[in-house]
Amino acid sequence: MSDLKGKRRCRVGIAGFGTVGQAVARILSSGIHPELQLTHVCNRNVARKRVDWVSPDVIWTDSFEDLLDGEVDAVVELIGGISPATEWIESALKAGTAVVTANKQVIARVGGTLANLAATQGRHLLFEAAVAGGIPVVRALREGISSDRLVRIQGILNGTCNYILTQMEQEHVSFSEALSDAQRLGFAEADPTEDVDGLDAQAKLAILISVGLGRRVEVEDIPVSAITPIETVDFAYARRLGCVIRQIAHAELVVDSERTRAFVQPALVPEASSLGRVGGTKNIVVVDGEFGGETAFSGYGAGGEPTAVAVVSDLLAISRGAPLAQIPPEAGRGTDLVLPEFEAPHYLRFMIRDRPGIIATAAEVFSRHGINIDAVLQEPGWSKTELPFVVTLERCGSSVVSAAMDEIRQLDFHVRPPLWLPILSAEEGRG
Ligand SMILES: NC(=O)c1ccc[n+]([C@@H]2O[C@H](COP(=O)([O-])OP(=O)(O)OC[C@H]3O[C@@H](n4cnc5c(N)ncnc54)[C@H](OP(=O)(O)O)[C@@H]3O)[C@@H](O)[C@H]2O)c1
User: Fold this and answer.
1) What's 343-422's CATH class?
2) CA angle 158-161-165, nearest 5°?
3) Which residues are the active-site residues?
4) Domain 137-300+333-339: which topology?
5) Would you state the pLDDT for residue 323?
6) Do the Cβ atoms of 36 and 45 come closer than 8 Å?
7) Could you tell me the residue ranges of all domains in the chain?
8) Measured from the CA of 45, which atom of ligand 1 is nearest?
9) Which residue, 135, 146, 404, 418, is the most exposed by fewest CB within 10 angstroms?
10) The pLDDT value given to residue 332
């Protein structure tokens, strides 16, 4: 590190000068953290990326090697994707350089191996921005409440989905209108698949399982379901049940076993709950500890500036000589089996061509599967040729509902495939 009035400055090289990279450079160039010095920016075809608001001393380069040869103390990996990001992080650690990354896909898949490498090399590998953007949840779990034994983590981890669902709920617009709106405002990518199908939240949940529950799971083992089948009418029925609809990431320890219950899927949650109150692009992580009970962390989970705050806070931790993380205990474990099965009351919405006997037919299937119907709801004023109605089920296993719904889906009265969502309150979603 170079000298700053007797103090050492931490030389920082940014790899990837996109949304987050530029926001990091803005903070570093603002002068509020004199202990951090931006020395290099690396990006493919870097000439078109140059800006005049960083120090003229900054070196702009196409080559990642220049960062390693340039005696930077910390590399900030912000190119995204798995390759070459993984190789760049590895080579930086091997070269004795600390690494800060916002890359959830890399950390969720090979974070344990990279953490081992970092510990062996005696260097930091920090990734606060990889989960829930600007919310310092990784540090909170590792330090703030590390004395507790966490048993459950629930979160809204994808701001794009939360924005779309909140718009549908509050503005009564369709999924595609809410998505277009999100794209116009820069809250959704041109290809929103990763977000709306739950893959983004899946990777973040895998990281939280490791950091918070001390377990390892394969990212792809966490079942996901998309928010795309949700319709505006579902919010009206959810409201009648005192609920809103959110994309929920859920993980829970199955004590004394090598299994972790986990899933990412849209669900009804009580309007007044911590999860239900989070709207727009915000995120929340709610953890349950054996001793400390429920603790919630919320804020902006994405966006250049909130994410950059998390990145720069990691850089400050490095420059201030924060203790190195030990090899995380979960890195030595095999991967847990992921249990997708959980128990909860359920919400089922049918869109049908009306005729007598439909509810009786469905009720017969539920009864055969040992499922109790809690209520049947039908809003007035719909056409008989495209009629929505809702059945709520008493608490039962998700695989039993799935089996019953596989049968019901074959019946001839559907205009569109039925939708089923769990109703998750504080006690639900458990085995
Ligand atoms: N944006 C957010 O709100 C947010 C929040 C949390 C975490 N993150 C994570 O932060 C990371 C960066 O996200 P972002 O939104 O800033 O992405 P972005 O806007 O797409 O920026 C990525 C930058 O890296 C460059 N790049 C990509 N591949 C490269 C390669 N192989 N060699 C050299 N340069 C390369 C891109 O150059 P081109 O201009 O040529 O494409 C672009 O300038 C990702 O891991 C993302 O998941 C983002």
Assistant:
1) alpha beta
2) 140
3) 204
4) Dihydrodipicolinate Reductase; domain 2 (3.30.360)
5) 85
6) no
7) 2-130, 137-300+333-339, 343-422
8) 40
9) 146
10) 62
Residue 86 reports pLDDT greater than 70: yes
Q: What is the pLDDT of residue 70?
A: 76
Percentage of the chain lying above the pLDDT 70 cut: 95
pLDDT of residue 4: 46
User: pTM, whole model, 2 decimals?
Assistant: 0.95
Nearest CA to ligand 1 atom 12: 78
Nearest residue (by CA) to ligand 1, atom 20, is 18
CATH superfamily, domain at 2-130? NAD(P)-binding Rossmann-like Domain (3.40.50.720)
User: Any residues with Cβ below 6 Å from ligand 1, and which?
Assistant: 16-21, 43-44, 78-80, 84, 102-104, 129, 133, 302-304, 307
Confidence of residue 431 (pLDDT cuts 50, 70, 90): low
Quick check: 2 pLDDT over 90? Answer: no
Please, how many CA atoms are within 13 Å of residue 100, restricted to the half-sphere of its CB? Answer: 27
